[in-house]
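Reopening this ticket.

The earlier resolution said the output was attached, but the attachment link was broken on my side. Pasting everything inline this time so it's all in one place.
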Amino acid sequence: MRKPKTYKTNYEEIQKKRLEKFYVIIHIVRVTIPVKKEGEIYNTDITVIYGYNLQGLKTIIGIYEEDKNDNRYWLEQLEQVKGRGLEVVKFVSSEPNKKLEQALKIVYTGVEIIPSADRIITKIVNYAPNRWRDETGRELLKMFLAEDKEDFEAIYNSLQEKYIENRIVVIMLERYKEEIAAYYEYSREFRHLFCSYYTIRVMLYTFYAAVRRKDDYYTGAEQIVNETLGEYLSKFEATRSYVKKDWIRIQNEIYAKFAEEIEGYIL
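Inline output:
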């Protein structure tokens, strides 16, 4: 049962709640914030994992602070996720993280890992003039969601011309062109599912705003969730990213491609 919008979740509930057996896609989002532990202040990466089920509803699957000295960290975390009920994941949209990707392929055999559209767009936008950043972000998103590869090429060439005098942006566009073009192995419906750009932007902004509002530093993910972000994360799960008619198109595409695999998870 979905929680009401006024519900305030907590860190322990997120990490232990039961999950559905099948998720179409999970998105992996990295947030870098300053924390204070044992009197020292340093930046730490908080990884938020959320997924879409067959009904198009979002779930926060887990929030983690990776121990980069532990080669088994992600394997152990994902085994726990599987133990909470998540049996099958078809797609993962992720930032580069070799240990996490290796663990995903071990725990969820056959999963397809898609380069994060948010990461690529953000990398390029960071080198655009401030007055063009929002517009450039929208144009770059169109590169992922064009009708076909011909339209993709047209948008790419248009951006190359627009930034002809900004050599760094031109180089960045060239560097990521093949990663973006790889999205066109999939239908437009699936590309919409892979590109969670604005959802991730809002999530990142919410985390950063919480850090700026606090007089002192947080000690880590658990404190920031329990003290500040519990209501936001509950609303995140309760709010749809897609109107029903758009999700039905995606849903039909899922059924068409993976009917045998998802048959046992429909009801």
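Reporter confirms the inline version is readable. The first helix runs from residue 11 to 16. The CA atoms of residues 25 and 200 lie 14 Å apart.
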